[in-house]
Amino acid sequence: MNRQSDAEIETGLRFFGKMTASISHEIKNVMAIINESAGLLEDYSLMAQKGMPVDPERLKVVSHRIANQIRRANGITTNLNSLAHSVDEFQKSVDMRETLALAVGLTGRFADMRSVTLDFHPPSDFPAVITSPFHLLNLIWRILDFAMDASGTGKKVGLTFEAGPTSVKIRFTGIEALTNEPSTIFPTATESALLHMLGAAIHQDAKKGEINLVLPKDVRQQAAAES
Amino acid sequence: MEKVLLVDDEKEFLETMAERMGARDMNVTTTTSPKEALKKAQEESYDAVILDLMMPEMDGLETLKELKKKNPDLQVILLTGHATVQKGVEAMKLGATDLLEKPADLKILTEKIKKAHTKKMVLVQKQAEEKVRQILAEKGW
After folding, report:
1. Residues A44 and A120 in one domain
2. Which residues of A touch B103 (CB under 8 A)?
3. Domain tally, chain B
4. Where are the beta strands (DSSP E) in chain B?
5. pLDDT at B35 > cutoff 70
6. Residue A206 belongs to a domain with what CATH number?
């Protein structure tokens, strides 16, 4: 193994670790709510055993709360499952709508912690892209991570998608720190390595406060053209 | 009656926990905002503050630091999704009374709140005794 492949492995593992740690925290929060709700139902049943009246509406509130949290947990574990399966193949046809929705879903908790809103506008036309789903997710996360920190007072990062004849563009907007000049600290070597793997490129539009990620529609053709 | 301030960004967790604690004769105030918690802790005297470690706006350890700055005797119990020895040590160094992992057992949490209430009563008594000593010394009685 050489240094470059070690660095690539480390990047991937760090991304996986960060996402799964975040997911486990979210699940813990869900379990805490369900735990307290179950405890509250037990409290109500003890009250009823002692002959105290129990309002049926309160029982409904608690049961709805539990059902909501189960739905929430289902969404979280679906994201975890999708993330886990993103390493099944490193070159496959990828549904960009699903991939972007997954990236936004995985980033949601991080955005909440920074009080940043993620604004995702999926267009109606989403062509499939042949690429590495895991590395693409990793790169989108790294751009979002930077964008959230650089969102300034606006605290809102937008995500849109455009398709061209041979490439697709993912636009990250609301990056206030770029409005004066392009960043010299982004992309770092890690993002550059991911860009190289994906045959992709990043363009910073300082005037608009945007980062555009341009991906080939077929990473195999890009690699063949370069060789 | 123990007086408790619950701070967590999960509203449903707060509501459920507050109802259960209320049924156990505790006087409970809740907030999802750490900044609001700091304000409330200055305005009211609480036996214990139950504080989530991971919150937007201001994280639990930062909030703990600020709470202890304004009131070094305040009893603060931290709740976390993943309790490690390292986190525990860091929390204790900053003056936390305890660190519990979510989902927390309400029986255990209630015992810790009662202990915090007793500790506070002892501190209040000590402060009162000290005041009396000072007055006696000043008056030369």
Report:
1. no
2. 28, 31-32, 34-36
3. 1
4. 3-7, 27-31, 48-52, 76-80, 98-101
5. yes
6. 3.30.565.10
